[in-house]
Here is the input.
Amino acid sequence: MIILDGLGDRGIPAFGGKTPLEAAETPNMDRLASAGQCGLVDPLFPGMPVGTHTGICLLFGLSKQDTVKLARGPIEATGVGLNSNDQALYFRCNFATLKKHENGYDIIDRRAGRINSGTEALATAVGTIDLGDSITASLHPATQHRVVLQLEGNRLSHDISNTDSGNQYRTKGLLPCLANDPSDDIAVKTAGAVNRLMDIVYQRLSQHPLNRERIENNLPPANGIICRSPGRLPKVKPLLNQLKLRTAVISGERTVLGLGELLGYDLFVKDSFTASQDTDLHAKVKTAMEALEDHDMVYLHIKATDIHSHDLDPTGKCDILAKIDDAITPLISDSLVIAVTADHSTDTNTGRHTGDPIPSLIYNPRGRVDGCTAFSELACSSGGMGRINSSGFIMTMLDQMNLLENFRPKDSDFIA
Here is the structure.
């Protein structure tokens, strides 16, 4: 399964109303579409935007019930190797550029210019922080600007709000962390610790030599963090494990790798597998070919498509799609079932995830063929798979691989 992060899009005025996928030269994906079945995929529910971890969870075979309970913080924690403490609280965070004022902090850049080097030194400079109430905190770098916050202590609560104001950050700034239920003393204590941490991290990073150097080079300093999606490491069992399949994940993105680690899938990682536009596409495809020799299911994840959407760069997205299409040439085979889909749609006009359905295909050399002759949002709308959710999509692929038996009661969780 080839997962092109944020693949689905909306019409781009500069492309005459075409989406980047419709405008891109993708002869290989068009060929797969012409020889297979196409459709539109809603990750959870029509019109409902989802994050990467939700979309990937469903494609990786988790039930909807497990997926909606799974916070992104612990997934990213697993991706950076923090999988031994099931009582700690983990947050998904960004290194960010903040500006302090009398009443709090303005967020100047949510990603500190997509900082991609020196973050380990920043995390080390923060160290292990004693926040009082027997609570300690530490930071652990992930991909680019992303960082994981580990909060340890007795009786911590994940029922607290984010400090990340999201796309409203220019007007709302850094939000205070609050207990979702003000009468919950444990949540109030946990939120207070997070707020103290925001101040301490800002103090320690503002004068860090790396940030002074970034300012001198006209780069935004990574002088603070913004936090969201707290949670604990869960116990889950995906459909693929229930079927006793050997599964491989090829990616450079920590969220995807963390989820694969959490589910017990085999991870294939190289330094050249980045979560950016410079990822080595041909090496990823070669690794996928090798993994197919002794794995039943191989996931090949590419993040670059989504990065271009968030950067409001439709031409870049169009170009990377053409490069991906060329790179997957060795995978096209009369002996493989191949799927192409995404975790969610991302609108390159706004940089936001949307609830638009995802153009998707499944090629089975011995399967049905519909009338689609191209791979795009428009073409897939008339495909033989119709409009299904991500759970239905992975089920359809497994069925095309002849890996499913007739329905049994224990399958109920995966079709709800």
User: Anything to note?
Assistant: The CA atoms of residues 33 and 204 lie 53 Å apart.
